[in-house]
Write a structure and sequence with these properties.
This is ArsR family transcriptional regulator. It comes from Citrobacter amalonaticus. GO terms for molecular function: cadmium ion sensor activity; DNA binding; DNA-binding transcription factor activity; lead ion binding. By secondary structure, this protein is α+β, with helices and mostly antiparallel strands. Helices cover about 50% and strands about 15% of the residues. Strands 1-3-2 form a three-stranded antiparallel β-sheet. β6 and β7 form a beta hairpin. The chain starts with 7 loop residues before the first helix and ends in a 6-residue tail after the last helix.
Length: about 240
């Protein structure tokens, strides 16, 4: 008889994977996590409204999310806020959105047009405009095709725009292609993607609304996007 030896470490890994999946399996927790993808910190009351559950139930869900390190809690005076624990969690959620989208029976796109055009993906830009911007950076050879390396030309051109990015001291990638769940193509993620969103905000090319991932380009932003990157939003 052939005996099967089960590695205890493998068993622990499988258990941890099951726990991680279980965190996202609850619809209320999924709604909270999706809301936190706007990169802001939310109160438990705000998240309970998003999930359409009672504050006490929301607190229980948030405790679970904190325990599994999906979310961290921040104290600010008498108030307590919650945000995603890291960019890695945000990337995991964005990829899961893509998997969930492509696994549905109907492929018809029902995402609101405003969110499909431009939205935040934690701390970087996502949506149609972000995908076209990624393609532009690659076609101009500012960025390698896999999105993971800024070329010397790219460093020079971005520096001319006032975008100077230092490599992160954390494990986070400097630059990467992040699969856009509504466009099914890559937008720019990583430290560079975050720096670009910060720059766009500082230049007042974009506006964001509290409690929403939607990004709106200002008239000046629309003109500059066409002038500098050749992206026409009026098409």
């Amino acid at each position: 008889m052939t005996s099967i030896v089960v590695n205890e470490e493998d068993g622990e890994l499988e258990s941890r994977m099951a726990l991680t999946a279980a965190v996202m399996a609850d619809k209320s927790r999924s709604r909270m996590l999706c809301a936190l993808m706007d990169g802001r910190a939310w109160t438990a009351t705000e998240l309970s409204a998003v999930a359409d559950i009672s504050p006490s139930t929301a607190s229980a869900h948030l405790a679970r999310l904190c325990e599994q390190r999906f979310v961290v809690s921040l104290a600010q005076g008498r108030h307590r806020y919650f945000r995603l624990a890291s960019a890695d969690i945000a990337e995991l959620l964005e990829r899961l959105m893509g998997v969930a989208w492509t696994s549905t029976a109907s492929r018809k796109i029902t995402t609101p047009l405003s969110l499909r055009q431009a939205r935040t993906c934690y701390d970087h830009l996502a949506g149609e405009v972000a995908v076209r911007l990624f393609d532009t950076l690659v076609s101009r050879q500012w960025l390698t095709a896999d999105g993971e390396t800024l070329t010397p030309l790219g460093e020079e051109k971005l520096a001319d725009l006032g975008i100077v990015v230092q490599a992160s001291v954390s494990r986070r990638k400097f630059s990467c292609g992040c699969l856009d769940w509504s466009e099914r193509r890559y937008h720019l993620g990583g430290v560079l993607g975050a720096a670009l969103l910060t720059w766009l905000t500082g230049q007042r090319w974009i506006k964001t609304a509290p409690g929403s991932r939607q990004v709106t380009f200002t008239p000046s932003g629309i003109r500059k996007l066409q002038m500098i990157f050749g992206i026409n939003m009026m098409r």
